[in-house]
Amino acid sequence: MKLHSLKLTDIRVHQEFELTPHPQFTILTGPNGVGKTSVVDAIHMVCMSRSFVTKTDRWLARKPGATFHIEASFSSSQRSNVALECRYDGSAKPPKRFYVNGSPLEKLHHLIGRVPVVVISSEDHELSHEGPAFRRSFLDGFLAQLSPAYLESLLRFRQVRRQRNALLGQFAQFGRGGPAHGHSTSDTALKQALEPWNEPYAKAAVDIVRARITLVEELEKGLQQQFSALSAQKDAQPTLEYKTFVPQTSPSTLPTVDEALAAMEAAFDREQERGLSLVGPHRDELAFGLNGLPLRQYGSQGQHRLFVLALKLAEAVYFHEHHEEPPILILDDVFGNLDDANRADVCALLDRLGLQVFITSATTTLFDSCSALTDKNTLYVTL
């Protein structure tokens, strides 16, 4: 899919804004505060049902809690053209509604994957600097666009986990051996209450973990290729290691439902005490390594930036090779952190892929070294 036209109404600083982008490179330039990120964030919102900048939709409106409107039309060489629309009204319930070719979408998750989007942002440092939740979110967002089945497994797991947590919390509230709403809180009573939920929980968990392990194994190859192309240290070796709640004999071992149930049984006492589901993909880790050492603890700031940039470029390449539709790629305020050689390398890679790319930058001078950007394949828009 490629974005053919975009119209924003009351998005951040934009009362009205229309864009007909280039099929390849569109570079939005201008000083801070003119709404460059708001434009690319609106593309992400209409394709992914959420902002990549804020977790609170109402902050996207020109006035908090008011209304905003996004219209976007997309063309495709593989599928029928599609028009997506997002309407937000802070006073309505639900406040956010999406439309596909004019028809309302009943469930938000049905939007995911129609128009795949990859974002490379200056905020991506959280991936390597912060805790495992950020890296799990990266995998989930990646896989949800690639596979509707993965998204269904993820939603099912979250639903079953809520049910298990409600039961565990109810029993933990009254302590082991005490009454809870007329029921015994003995181990037997709690196990009986959890029994209907354990197998669905284990099956959804295994589906998620298997998909993540398979993806990580392939993604690591792309990461190494992109890191080598960007880094002056050609012998540097970046690695990805997925650490899951099921004991593995090797990093690529795929867990079974029986193994997941055994891990849950082993954690029963701890779960009973804490009142929470303590084993599952929601507590797994994707570990970043460089030259055999943990990146988070031992990597320099430059190595962190190159690692995450290489990872995100590998994501875009993977989408391009494995998804029916090539993704739209957004690079938000990224080029200022790169040297001339890296900027030129990134633009050359994107030119070869032929993706539609949106770039935000405070100045056009950053692209003087990028010979891949030409008058024929690039549109500069000054805000």
Task: Note the main attributes of this structure.
383 residues; alpha/beta; Glutathione S-transferase Yfyf (Class Pi), Chain A, domain 2; 6-stranded antiparallel β-sheet; 5-stranded parallel β-sheet; 10 helices; 16 strands; globular
Distance between the termini: 25 Å
Q: What is the CATH class of the domain at 134-220 and 232-294?
A: Mainly Alpha
Order of helices and strands: EEEHEEEEEHHHEEHEHHEEHHEHEE
| Assembly context of the chains | single chain
Strand order of the largest sheet: 2-1-4-5-6-7
Report the sheet with the most strands, covering strand number, pairing sense and barrel closure: 6 strands, antiparallel
Helix content: 40-55%
- What's the pLDDT, averaged over the residues? 91
Instruction: Give the helix tally.
Output: 10
